[in-house]
Amino acid sequence: MEILWAVILLAGLGAIFGFGLAVAAKFLYVKEDTRVTDITAILPNANCGACGYPGCNGYANAIVKGQAPSLDLCKPGAKAGVPAKLKAYLAEHPADNNKKY
Fold it and tell me: Closest Cα to residue 43, out of 79, 77, 68, 81?
C-alpha cells in the first residue's frame, strides 16, 4: 500500500510541475528575429572573427540591431559578393531601427 501512495504522489507532483512548465513556457516565450538566421545563412559561416564580432552569428545580430558600421566587414565573404546579398536582403526585409546601409 505504501508503494501505491508513493506512485500516486510522484505522478501528482509530475503533473503539477509539468503544468507549471507548460504555463511558464507560454508566458515567458521570447520571439526570435528570423532575420538573424537568414543573414547568418547568407554569410560564409567561417566564424573567423575578422569582422570584429564573435563569429557570423554575432555579426548577423549586430546587423539586425543596427550596431554594425557597414555590411562589408566580412573578409571571407567579400569575394563571394556577400555585401551585395546582404544589401538586397535588408532592402526586402527592413529593420525596425530604420538604419540604412
Answer: 77
